[in-house]
Every structure is written in C-alpha cells, then in structure tokens.
Amino acid sequence: MSKQTPDERAKKLSEGLDYVKELPGFERGHPHYFKDPMIDHLLEIVLQLGAEMWIIRDRQMVTEYLLATEGKVTPEMIEAFKPTPEFREKMKEERRTYTRRVYQSLYEGIGPAGEAAFVSGVLKAR
Amino acid sequence: MGHIDTKSLLTRGFNGNSPELLKRADEAYCDFVSDARNILMYAQFQNIGQLGAGELDAAAKATGNLPNSPEAIKGVVMKVPEIATYFRVKRTLQESYWQRIAESYGMKASEFEQALNEADKTGPGSVTWDPNFVYPAYATVDIHIQPGGYTGKTLGALTYDYGTKIFFGGAGDADSLHHSMADKTATPKDGVVKRVMEVGCSIGQMACGLKKRFPDAEVWGTDIGAPMVRYAHWRTIQQGLDVHYAQMPAEDLDFPDNHFDVVTAHLLFHEIPVPVIKRVLNEAKRVLRPGGVFVLWDFFSAKNRSGGTNFMGLMDACDNGEPYAPGFVTCDVEALMEQAGFTLRSHDPQELGRAGRVGDKPV
Ligand SMILES: C[S@@+](CC[C@H](N)C(=O)[O-])C[C@H]1O[C@@H](n2cnc3c(N)ncnc32)[C@H](O)[C@@H]1O
After folding, report:
1. Cα(A96)–Cα(A57) distance, integer angstroms
2. What is the nearest CA distance from A72 to chain B, expressed in angstroms?
3. Most buried of A10, B69, B181, B335 (most Cβ within 10 A)?
4. What are the phi and psi torsion angles at B223 (to 5°)?
5. What pLDDT, in 10s, does the model give residues B349-360?
6. For all residues of chain A together, what is the average pLDDT?
7. Does A32 sit within 8 Å of B136, measured CB to CB?
8. For chain B, percent of residues with pLDDT exceeding 90
C-alpha cells in the first residue's frame, strides 16, 4: 500500500474533480415526471400491485404443480422448488401475457413496441 | 471449500453463480420487475427516444434554441404522457428491485457478513482490502441508483450481483455474457500471457472468465470498492477458481511498471469522470509491459452512434445514477488512448463493437 494516509490519498484521487458534484445524477434525487405528482404515485402503486399479484399467481402455479406431481405441498417445498426448464418457460409466458394484458393501455397512443431486449452501446451498435 | 457453509446460508441455492434470493416471493417479485422492464421499457426505448427527439426539435424550431439542461429537457418532453410514463416506470422498477433484493438478503445480513469475513482468509485465490480506505467523492455515487452504490454497503456487491441480472434483461445467467467478453479479449501480438488484470472488476464475473481462458496465467481483479472485491473473492471461491482480488483505484495501482501482459476494463469507463479516465489510461500503460495490450469494453462514443439518443442518455445520467456516462460518450476515448501512448488496432466502429477498443503498448 502507498505511504500516504488514507485521507491524503483520497485528496489526491479527488484532484480536479470538484466539478463532479454538480453533474446531473451525482445526487440521486426524487424525480417525478407528471405535472401532478399524484399520477407518479398512482403509477408506482399500480406497478407494486402488479408485482404483488404476480407473487400470488407464482405461488399458486407452484402449489398446483407440486400437488399434481408430488401429491402434497408444504411451505418448505415451495421455497425449495426449482422449476424444470419447461415449467420455467411456461411461467415466463404466463407472466409476460399477464404483464402485457394489465399494462397494455399505457403506450396505446404511440404505436407498436419494438423488440424487447437489453439496449446498450456495448452489445449493439445503433 | 474452506469452512464457509453456504448450504445453510443459501437455503434456496444458487442461480448460476449468483445466490438465489432467500424467499420464493422475492424471486417472483424480481421476475415480474425483470419482464416489466423488458416489456414496458426496453421495448419502448426507440419509440420514446424518437418521440422525445421530435418534441425537442419542435421546441428548438419554436424558440430558436435546443433545450439542453435536464430541467429544460424535462420541461419539454414530459408533457407527452407516454414519455412521462416511460420514465416513471423506469425509475420505479429500478428503485423497487434494489430495495427488494437488499431486503431479501438482509434477512441474513450478519451471516453474509460472516461469510465474507471467512472468505477474506480463505483460498483459492486471495483478496486484499483496506478497512481504512477513504473514497474520493466521485466513487460514492449511487450508480444505477443502487442505495450505497459500489462502495457504501458491506453487502452492496451481493445486491449488485442479483440486480445486474435484472439490469441485463435477465440475460447472462452463469455469467455467460462476461465469459464471452473474456473469450474475445485481445492478447499481445507475441502471444505471451502470463499476467492478466481486469480493473473495475466488480463481482469478478469477467476475471473468472479470464481465469478460465488463461488457466496458467496469474489473474487479478481490482476495484476501488472493498465490498466488490471481497464479494468477488467469495463468489470466485464458490467456483473453485484461483483469482487474486485487490481494492485499488485503477488510476493508482499498487503494481510495478511493465508487470502485466493484458489489462482490461469492462464497463468501467462510463462510470468514472473523464479526468480519471485519463489517469487510468496512463496507469494501465505504466503497468503493462512493452507489447502488452489494453482492452476497453464500453459504450460506443457519440460519434459512432446515429442521432436521437442523446436525450435518453441524459435522462439516464440524471435519473438512473449515471453522472459520468455523458462525459464518456463525448470524450473521444480512442483519441485519449492514443494520447496515453497506445497504438489502436482499429478505429472501425464495427470492430470496436466486436472486439472492444484494443490498444498495444509499443515495444
Ligand atoms: C459497472 S461496474 C463494472 C463491472 C464489471 N467490470 C463487469 O463487467 O461486470 C463498475 C465498477 O468499477 C468500479 N470503479 C469505479 N471507479 C473505479 C476506479 N477509479 N478504480 C477502480 N474501480 C472503479 C466500481 O466500484 C464498480 O465495481
């Protein structure tokens, strides 16, 4: 390790970098996007409810699967459950259909969605 | 592997190389968030980008100047409900998965901390870090709005591990994305690879890929964040790989001159300020031996992109904790590499996309 004290080293590493504290995004902030912040809150609540609803559907699917294959189900069995690739795919399909159905109106006004994939300059030149 | 009993800690086992969340309900929650990001965000990315760019052009025509501060841009584009919706959805989903993941592992916080303490002293491989390290302010940002960022929480890297799975749209299980990058990483022209380092290695996914590719080489992963290198070491032990990790700023490495054959950085540069990028390049050049190679994997520069994405980038910067990304994409990093003394193998954007930016240290 270098001979400077930790504080001296931090000072050295920060040289010429005071400006970064002014950059957008340096502070995390609490942005809202609609003129009426209540719309932001309602959308947040709707997304949280969507997730909570999916948790219940997920548990129900696992419960039914275990009952059908094992003839019984316990909370421990649900926690330990590892889906087969086929069942995982089936749940994913179900989840996607559910998500599309629940939220389909959000972007109705702006035409069809593109390909749903991670978009990054590293992975894909635009 | 050592005395670390991961079975009782990870009651739900592993997902690839990453610990499963501790409850089925947490996993289901994150599955939903991951798909919702794909369906409600990524799939709308182009649409929203075009719509926003159109609004900004129209505003520029009407007023004579293009809005460029985040406030001015938001003032124009957020009037369109779909755009406001997109960014609300993006921010909420991002906040919610970080919170849920941290809560899930947090149920066994002290056990996880104990596992890291034990791993500190266990092999294969090693980790060194300094409990008294003082972080420069630039490295304390909540990048991707993860609470505590890379440096502020002991279990931050564990949370980051599961979070990046979601970030990458659910892809990259078992670190396949990182391993494919490791496999594509250029080697010195003379073919000699004895020492390899990834700077800004986070949880060691790429470093492990490099070790698999160069089993006989000494492989190092360095990162400024102590939580990162400690967890990277724990995670690497689980894979039985012999990688050395150390807490070191990439611009101030504790290695002699001419020491490494390959130094690589994957997705580090867009997360550090431009002056630090310059220092990192100089430092990489110093620790590479003549003929050694520096490989940079990161976003395309603005000059290599088609237009229309600037406003999306700026929004990502301010509301998704990426304050340094706009500086990176506009800094002409290829020119900076040349200024640092590297000879670039290619300037062709297609090549940069396939191989990263590859710079040789002259012999
Ligand atoms: C997006 S992560 C990169 C992750 C990793 N390379 C990968 O491919 O998954 C950026 C990492 O860079 C680290 N970092 C930020 N500034 C650094 C610096 N000056 N020196 C070394 N590491 C730094 C952060 O702690 C974080 O772990």
Report:
1. 13
2. 18
3. B181
4. -155, 150
5. 888 878 899 999
6. 90
7. no
8. 82
- Output the average pLDDT for chain B: 93
Q: Please answer whether residues A40 and A46 qualify as being in contact, where contact means their C-beta atoms are separated by less than 8 angstroms.
A: no
pTM: 0.94
Q: A44: helix, coil or strand?
A: helix
B272-294 pLDDT, tens digit each? 999 999 999 999 999 999 999 99
Q: A126: distance to nearest CA of chain B, Å?
A: 6
| Mutate which: B23, B27, B82, B85, vs A, most A CBs within 10 A | B85
Residues in A touching B96 (Cβ below 8 Å): 47-48, 51
Tell me, yes or no, whether A76 lies in a domain: yes
Let me know if residue A126 belongs to a domain.
no
Q: How far is the CA of B8 from the centre of ligand 1 (A)?
A: 30
- Outline where DSSP puts E strands in B43-181: 126-128
Q: Which residues contact A107 (CB under 8 A, 6 or more apart)?
A: A113, B40, B44, B47, B82, B85, B86
Contacting residues of B for A44, CB less than 8 Å apart? 88, 92
User: Residue B257: helix, strand or coil by DSSP?
Assistant: coil
Q: Which residues constitute the domain of residue A96?
A: 35-120
Instruction: Please give the Cα distance from B269 to B31 (Å, whole number).
Output: 29
Q: Is the pLDDT of residue A124 over 50?
A: no
> Helix, strand or coil for residue B8?
helix
B47 vs B166: CA distance, rounded Å: 22
A89-120 pLDDT tens trace: 999 999 999 999 999 999 988 877 776 555 44
Pocket of ligand 1 (CB under 6 A): B 139, 150, 178, 199-202, 205-206, 223-225, 228, 249-251, 266-268, 271-272, 276
- What 3-state class would DSSP assign to B244? strand
What ipTM did this prediction achieve?
0.92
Over 90: is that where the pLDDT of A11 sits? yes
Q: What are phi and psi of A28, to 5 degrees?
A: -70, -30
Q: For A18, which DSSP code?
A: G
For A26, which residue in chain B has the nearest alpha carbon? B323
Distance from CA of B168 to the nearest CA of A (A): 6
Q: Does B315 have pLDDT greater than 50?
A: yes
Per residue, the 3-state secondary structure of B328-340, as one string, reads: HHCCCHHHHHHHC
- Locate the chain B residue with the closest alpha carbon to A104: B40
Does the distance separating the beta carbons of B323 and A26 come in below 8 Å?
yes
By CA distance, what is B355's nearest residue in A?
A: A122
Contact A96, A89 (CB under 8 A): no
pLDDT digits (tens, 9 = 90+) for B215-272: 999 999 999 999 999 999 999 999 999 999 999 999 999 999 999 999 999 999 999 9
